[in-house]
Design goal:
Order of helices and strands: HHEEHHHEEEHEHEEEEEH
Structural class: alpha+beta
Radius of gyration: 26 Å
Distance between the termini: 82 Å
Largest sheet: 5 strands, mixed
Strand order of the largest sheet: 7-5-6-8-9
Strand content: 5-15%
Length: about 375
C-alpha cells in the first residue's frame, strides 16, 4: 500500500482534552437547562393550584345558588363519648358540603351526615383523598397517612386502619383562629360575632353580608400541609371541621414560616397550621368571594408579629395581649389599631365587613 493510500484511509480521533471540553460544554448546557425545566414545572403546578381554587370558589357559588349562602365551616352535631363527650361539637368540614358541587356526588351520598366524620360508618369517605383539595406543589398533601389499628378515635371501625388524607386549602375565618365551646358558653354570642371571614364555624355567610365587596374579600386560603405540619397527623384532615384543619386566618403574614422556624408540633390553634402560604415562590394563591383567584405576594402590606410569642401588637384577647400565638378556644378578642391607622391590606382583605377601602394596585 502506498503512503498516499494509507493517509487517505486513516481517521483522526478525539484527544482526551477535546473529549473533556465536549463533556464540560454538555454539562454547562444541562446546568443552564435544569432551572428552566424546574421553573416550567412549577409554573404548571401553580396553574393547577389556581385551577383547583377556581373550581372550589365556583362550587361555593353554586352552593350559594342552591342554599342562599356560602357553605358553613362547620355545623353543630351531638357526638358520643371520648373527645366529643356526648356534647355539641363541630362537625362536617366545608368540603363535605361542597362534594356535590365538585363532582363528588357519589362520595357525598356515601357520607352519613347524622354522624361525625370519625364514625365507623364514614370510614370509607374519610379514607378517600380528593386531588382538587391538594396543591401539586404541596407533595405531602397527596400522600395518605395510615392511622393504624385500632385507630386514634374510638368511633372508627374496630381494627381498621383508616388512611387519612390532607388538604392544601381552607375557608377564610378572618383574622383569628378561635372556637367556642358550645351553646351554653356565655361568650358564644361574642365569639360568633367576632368571625370576620366568609367561612367559619357555624356560619353560613350570605353574599349580602360581604359589605366590603366580594372582589375585595378572601373566600379560600391556600395553606400547605407540607410546610405547616410535615409528617404530623391530626392537622389539615380534609374532613375535619375544626379551625386550623379546614379553616385558616390572616392573623400571620403570608408564608410566615419562611422567616420564622416554628415548632411543627404546635397545636392547630397555633402558628404553623393557621396561616396562609404555599410552596410557590414569592407568595400564595387565594380565592376571592367573587370567584376570582389571585396570587398574593409575600410582600403584601401586613401587620408583623413580634417575638418571642409571635403575636400582633394590635390584638387583645379577653382584654390583654395574647401570650402564645393566636387566640384559642373560648377566647374573645379585639383589634386596637393606633389612631389614624387602619388594618393593613392583607388583614383588610380577610374581613368581609370592616369598611376598609382597598384598591387592586395594593396587592
Amino acid at each position: 500500500m502506498s503512503k498516499s493510500q494509507f493517509q487517505r484511509g486513516s481517521r483522526s480521533a478525539f484527544t482526551l482534552i477535546e473529549l473533556l471540553v465536549v463533556i464540560a460544554i454538555i454539562a454547562v448546557l444541562i446546568a443552564l437547562l435544569l432551572p428552566a425545566v424546574q421553573a416550567a414545572r412549577e409554573a404548571a403546578r401553580r396553574a393547577q393550584c389556581t385551577n383547583n381554587l377556581k373550581q372550589l370558589a365556583l362550587s361555593c357559588h353554586n352552593y350559594d345558588s342552591s342554599n342562599g349562602c356560602f357553605p358553613p365551616g362547620s355545623i353543630e352535631l351531638i357526638m358520643y363519648g371520648g373527645w366529643g363527650s356526648g356534647s355539641p361539637d363541630h362537625a362536617h368540614a366545608v368540603w363535605i358540603a361542597l362534594l356535590p358541587y365538585i363532582e363528588g356526588g357519589t362520595l357525598y351520598n356515601s357520607y352519613n351526615d347524622k354522624l361525625a366524620s370519625l364514625y365507623c360508618a364514614n370510614t370509607t369517605v374519610v379514607s378517600t383523598g380528593l386531588r382538587t383539595l391538594e396543591c401539586p406543589s404541596d407533595a405531602l398533601a397527596g400522600i395518605g397517612v395510615p392511622q393504624g389499628p385500632p385507630g386514634t378515635f374510638s368511633g372508627w371501625c374496630p381494627g381498621s386502619n383508616p388512611i387519612m388524607h390532607y388538604c392544601s386549602y381552607g375557608g377564610n375565618m378572618g383574622l383569628f383562629l378561635t372556637d367556642d365551646t358550645g351553646p351554653n358558653d356565655p361568650k358564644r354570642p361574642t365569639i360568633l360575632n367576632s368571625y370576620e371571614g366568609t367561612i367559619h364555624p357555624l356560619s353560613p355567610v350570605r353574599i349580602s353580608e360581604i359589605t366590603d365587596g366580594t372582589s375585595n374579600t378572601i373566600l379560600l386560603i391556600e395553606s400547605p400541609y407540607g410546610i405547616n405540619y410535615p409528617g404530623v397527623g391530626g392537622a389539615h384532615w380534609w374532613i375535619q371541621a375544626i379551625p386550623g384543619q379546614t379553616m385558616f386566618t390572616a392573623y400571620y403574614p403570608i408564608n410566615v414560616q419562611v422567616p420564622y422556624n416554628f415548632d411543627a408540633n404546635i397545636s392547630y390553634y397555633g402558628v404553623a397550621n393557621a396561616s396562609g402560604g404555599s410552596f410557590h415562590p414569592g407568595g400564595a394563591n387565594f380565592a376571592f368571594s367573587d370567584g376570582s383567584v389571585k396570587f398574593l405576594k409575600n410582600s403584601i402590606q401586613s401587620w408583623q408579629v413580634q417575638a418571642p410569642n409571635y403575636t400582633s401588637p394590635y390584638v387583645y384577647v379577653n382584654g390583654s395581649a395574647p401570650t402564645a400565638g393566636v387566640p384559642g378556644p373560648d377566647q374573645t378578642w379585639q383589634v386596637v389599631m393606633p389612631a389614624g391607622q387602619s388594618l393593613p391590606v392583607y388583614q383588610a382583605l380577610a374581613t368581609r365587613r370592616g369598611g376598609e377601602i382597598v384598591s387592586s394596585d395594593q396587592y
